């Protein structure tokens, strides 16, 4: 039986033997393990290939100085696990409470070794199907009409073993160092190999190429032992607190900015690295010059025969020689293992280091090939957190849901609620949902309205870039309009040149909510599902096309959108205007009155009182209404006449009060304010 089962998984193609799985995942980093978790929970046939002997091999080496810049907040003052993930940037999603990162480190910025241990436990405790020491060196296609996507993916490892799968998930990350070639670049040390012992830099003068977190991390490590550090890059420094992009320079690494601005020898320069050239003198010192000075010159002839910039401009900024030059230019995707048949092409412009993918994270060149994790960051580069664990854990789940619908007929998870729960459902999600919070302007909650707006269907964390394809991608229908709930920063609040600490930077009044700067919920209402053309022609910097109506919930200093007047009431009135209905909740006695005075009952009465359900008044509510001047207090009324206080009528009145049925004239029922 074992031989038969093994043989059933083997296919002979062109003389080679292929081991088959429905899903192949390349890479057992955070994204690969996250994908494996969802596939395993769904009971799918999958395998994860990892070139190293353990998961998370990238974190075994990087960051070189071992301190992560992903926050690990231990305490939030709340016990809601979903809310707490907003401030836990390292945990992967799972059902196992043991696999929260805070159990592995108490440091706000943890050591990378803790991440390595965490990923090892994640793979082992969940018994994920990971095949270690397997480096995939070639991927190609085999056309087959019986395959899910019209072709199979054929993979070959370093031992020439072959594998076949119907869907390929690439989670190999970005690990190929970015290298700039210019005359003298052979004298440059790479971030991946440079010494991390500060004593090796004592009394030296250092030039760092690059201006990201790896460059500043390297500078921070040697700041106290060097003569001075210069840093040169093509673009100006981008501070994450100004751009609101977590991949830009974080405060934990920016000590060199202090020493630069306070004139303590260190400095930053801007220039195109490809225009540089490095010349080494007889003492081993490295001199910076420009490429055009070396035209028609032999660089090996010696520095004395080469014109340096300071020969013409005696105050040239980098005229002092350097002892070391270090390259810290980040990483790029490895395209080398993919056959041309897959059409895995690099992006253009500032996303050329990433493969080209659709907003659904599927390759633009090959159906059935999805890119996950850091390599999928082209979808939201410099916009959101899709290149980091706290972002791609949610986009990976979104991809899994798309695959479940496409290949297994499992629609996108949803919950149906009566329309009376619309306001509450939105308030609950914007106050606790982590995926909306981390992947702002990328993932959205979708509310699909049922006919006559009597109910709605709630879908969580759908990629808004493929909103026009919602019915096809989710298996759900949007026939009667929809709401889209996303989180956004203010339109003009983020940027390298923005002063984000100016006076009056925050908005507090609900009527000015559309001017909110900090992250806040925005609700778009569409009478019809936007088309692909409308998505393409949306206004610049808008995540979505122009809606039929839009509502901003005013920003909140505590990110707590539960204020009755500032947050909930304006939202409810917006929803009521869109739906032309009354979303208030009424007590049973008010519904009773409406039944006699209105042709149509409010939804809460239709779905509550009319079905012999609803809310009864209580003694506490009645006292509150009296104090507020909404009801007349009858408890101290002096009833005239011959009827004794302990008469049958008095007993009946007492009984009715005990059952929460207030006795008051009809006009007071009309004037009473409902909840």
From TrEMBL:
It comes from the Eukaryota. Its cofactor is FAD. The keyword Transmembrane helix does not apply. One of its GO terms (molecular function) is monooxygenase activity. Keywords: Endoplasmic reticulum, FAD, Flavoprotein, Glycoprotein, Oxidoreductase, Signal. InterPro entries: Auxin_biosynth/cation_transpt, FAD/NAD-bd_sf. Interacts with SEL1L. May interact with OS9 and DNAJC10. Interacts with TXNDC16. Belongs to the FOXRED2 family. This is FAD-dependent oxidoreductase domain-containing protein 2. It comes from Calcarius ornatus (Chestnut-collared longspur).
């Amino acid at each position: 039986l074992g031989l038969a089962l093994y043989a059933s998984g083997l296919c002979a193609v062109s003389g080679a033997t292929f081991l088959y799985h429905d899903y192949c995942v390349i890479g057992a980093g955070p994204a690969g393990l996250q994908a494996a978790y969802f596939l395993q929970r769904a009971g799918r046939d999958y395998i994860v290939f990892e070139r190293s002997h353990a998961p998370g091999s990238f974190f075994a080496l990087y960051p070189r100085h071992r301190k992560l810049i992903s926050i690990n907040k231990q305490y939030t003052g709340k016990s809601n696990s979903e809310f707490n993930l907003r401030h836990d940037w390292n945990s992967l999603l799972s059902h196992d409470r043991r696999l929260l990162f805070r159990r592995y480190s108490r440091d706000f910025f943890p050591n990378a070794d803790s991440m390595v241990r965490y990923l090892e436990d994640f793979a082992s405790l969940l018994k994920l199907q990971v095949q270690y020491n397997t480096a995939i060196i070639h991927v190609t296609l085999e056309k087959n009409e019986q395959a899910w996507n019209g072709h199979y993916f054929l993979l070959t490892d370093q031992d020439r073993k072959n594998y076949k799968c119907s869907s390929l998930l690439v989670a190999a990350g970005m690990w190929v160092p970015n290298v700039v070639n210019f005359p003298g670049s052979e004298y440059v040390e790479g971030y991946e190999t440079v010494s991390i012992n500060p004593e090796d830099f004592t009394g030296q003068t250092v030039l760092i190429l690059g201006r990201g977190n790896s460059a500043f991390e390297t500078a921070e490590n040697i700041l106290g032992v060097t003569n001075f550090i210069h840093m040169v890059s093509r673009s100006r420094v981008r501070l994450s607190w100004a751009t609101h992009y977590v991949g830009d320079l974080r405060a934990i690494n920016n000590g060199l900015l202090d020493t630069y601005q306070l004139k303590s020898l260190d400095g930053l320069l801007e220039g195109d690295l490809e225009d540089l050239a490095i010349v080494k003198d007889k003492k081993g010192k490295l001199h910076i010059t420009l490429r055009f000075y070396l035209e028609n010159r032999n660089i090996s002839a010696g520095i004395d025969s080469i014109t340096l910039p300071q020969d013409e401009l005696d105050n040239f900024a980098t005229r002092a020689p350097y002892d070391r030059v270090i390259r810290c230019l980040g990483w790029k995707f490895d395209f080398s293992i993919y056959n041309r048949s897959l059409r895995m092409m690099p992006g253009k412009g500032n996303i050329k280091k990433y493969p080209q993918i659709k907003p659904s994270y599927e390759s633009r060149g090959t159906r059935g090939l999805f890119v996950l994790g850091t390599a999928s960051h082209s979808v939201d580069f410099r916009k959101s957190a899709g290149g980091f664990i706290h972002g791609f854990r949610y986009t990976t789940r979104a991809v899994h849901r798309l695959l479940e619908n496409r290949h297994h007929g499992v629609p996108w998870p949803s919950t149906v609620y009566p329309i009376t729960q619309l306001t509450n459902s939105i308030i609950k999600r914007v106050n606790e949902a982590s995926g909306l919070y981390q992947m702002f302007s990328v993932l959205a909650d979708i509310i699909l309205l049922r006919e006559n707006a009597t109910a709605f269907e709630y879908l969580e964390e759908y990629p808004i870039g493929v909103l026009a394809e919602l019915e096809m991608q989710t298996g759900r229908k949007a026939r009667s309009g929809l709401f889209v709930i996303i989180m956004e920063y203010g339109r003009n609040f983020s940027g390298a040149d923005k002063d984000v600490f100016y006076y009056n930077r925050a908005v507090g009044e609900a009527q000015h909510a559309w001017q909110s700067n900090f992250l806040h919920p925005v609700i778009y209402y569409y009478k019809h599902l936007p088309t692909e053309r409308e998505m393409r022609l949306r206004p610049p910097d808008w995540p979505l096309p122009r809606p039929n109506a839009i509502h901003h919930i005013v920003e909140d200093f505590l990110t707590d959108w539960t204020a009755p007047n500032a947050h909930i009431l304006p939202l409810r009135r917006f929803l009521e205007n869109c739906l032309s209905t009354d979303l208030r909740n009424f007590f049973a006695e008010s519904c009773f009155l409406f039944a006699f005075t209105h042709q149509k009952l409010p939804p809460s009465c239709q779905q509550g009182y009319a079905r012999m359900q609803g809310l009864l008044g209580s003694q506490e509510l009645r006292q509150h209404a009296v104090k507020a001047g909404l009801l007349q207090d009858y408890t101290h009324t002096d009833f005239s006449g011959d009827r004794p206080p302990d008469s049958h009528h008095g007993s009946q009145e007492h009984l009715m009060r005990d059952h929460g049925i207030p006795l008051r004239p009809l006009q007071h029922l009309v004037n009473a304010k409902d909840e």
